[in-house]
Amino acid sequence: MTEKIREYKMNGSLIIGVDAGYGNFKTARRVFPTAVSVSDKAPVFARDFIEWNGRYYIIGEGHKGFVTDKVTDDDNYVLTMAAVVKELEARGYTDRRNAVRIHLAVGLPLKWVQAQRDTFRDYMMKERIVKVGYKDRTYEMEFTGCTVMPQCYSAVAENLKDFKGMNLLVDIGNGTMNLMYLNNGRPMESKSWTEKLGVYQCEKAILNKVRDNTGTELMHEVIENFLRTGETDIAQPYAGLMVEAAKEYAVQIFQKLRDYEYNEQMMRLYVMGGGARIVEAFGEYDMDRVTFDHDIRANAKGYEYYCYMILKHQQRKKAM
Question: 216-269 pLDDT, tens per residue?
Fold first, then answer.
């Protein structure tokens, strides 16, 4: 059955959530790798590319390294524009006569929002009218605003009433791990943190363990498939070493949670993001007290809902 995803609009603008992850970019309906390469000529073999400002940007090729500040180059901007047109295509927006009015809903790690919100918003809003070519169609977009929200919390903002008692939210992305306590659905701002302990750290640990023990360099794709499914079809000792490294990473995750006062007998644990599958497959925990959310688009969907509620509240205040 096809998932039904709501569409939010405010003041004539379509709200589109974009989760700019270090491993993947996500929208409510689309996911693609955080990688881009540029060419002055249309690519011959690549199918997934956009045309912007007279240049061609191939999506999913190359590798975007981890950076704490996403406004240091044009890559995140280009990938965000790609995410928006992919989402527009998924929603069936094909009208070439009028520009689509869009309010961007984006996010940053929990503890980086306050310091980086303004510069990230300015970065996203540097062009009000943008034309992007994608799949033989030109999308003209008018960006009317941009709201920057916290990762992790946004993913569950619509369902806070379901979190009874004390809960620890953990969002394990590719680059960072965000943690936040909820007390009967109310966020505890003084008990929220961002750690550089994402899936990329697990990938490096696997790569190093196999290299150190066998001298063999594992392909990135082999590790990626293993982390996505928890299974691998390679020979020993490589398979065993990969599992060993993944278990050590899961131990590291739980140790970090305990550093922030996690006690499985006193609270419930809610794990989401790309790292949730690794923790579920290789961690040791009480299955009755841990929930895993494997929807890696949860933040992007949450950005749209949360942004809509923020704009609605602002509109009411103006009307008073």
Answer: 999 988 998 898 888 888 999 999 999 999 999 999 999 999 999 999 999 999
For 152-162, write each residue's pLDDT tens digit: 999 999 999 99
At residue 91, the pLDDT reads 93
Q: Based on the domain organization, do 136 and 232 belong to the same domain?
A: no
| Total tally of structural domains belonging to the chain | 2
Cα dihedral 116, 6, 272, 240 in deg (nearest 10): -120
The answer to whether the pTM exceeds 0.85 is yes
Distance CA 227, CA 173 (A): 12
The CA dihedral of 272, 277, 280, 282, to the nearest 10 degrees, is: -140
For residues 27 and 85, state if they share a domain: yes
Q: Which of 14, 33, 149 is nearest to 84 (CA)?
A: 14
292 falls within a domain:
no
Q: CB atoms < 10 A from the CB of 127, how many?
A: 13
Please answer whether residues 242 and 262 qualify as being in contact, where contact means their C-beta atoms are separated by less than 8 angstroms: no
